[in-house]
Amino acid sequence: xxxxxxxxxxxxxxxxxxxxxxxxxxxxxxxxxxxxxxxxxxxxxxxxxxxxxxxxxxxxxxxxxxxxxxxxxxxxxxxxxxxxxxxxxxxxxxxxxxxxxxxxxxxxxxxxxxxxxxxxxxxxxxxxxxxxxxxxxxxxxxxxxxxxxxxxxxxxxxxxx
Length: 161
Fold this sequence. Notes:
Structural class: alpha+beta
Number of domains: 1
Largest sheet: 5 strands, antiparallel
CATH superfamily: Jelly Rolls
CATH class: Mainly Beta
Number of helices: 3
């Protein structure tokens, strides 16, 4: 039996706060070869996830909000935001399923935001993600400015750390 409780969420959120990426995950699947990848993933405000898609092999991905608020953005092939959703259990928006081969990104909007993430497996690091060439790499000097431009375009302000 695998349990997800407040102790797990608090520990993961605390690790995310100390992590330069402002994210931390904990896997519940039995390894990279598992055909259903499952994890809890903590997203602190202003964490930057470079837009990407899961292609070749195509994989679906699902985020289920456990606490906080998570912004999930969708893009076209030119990098324009086409849709977005803010997962927020207080407002009754609990989950989003991301289709295979769909450009997407996510960021936390509240402190201690945690989601349950499910993705088709197996996990092969070299083939898991195709990163958008029109968006800065994680850790690049312009990544934070890019994220904030996306947030500004959507009129969304995360809670400050």
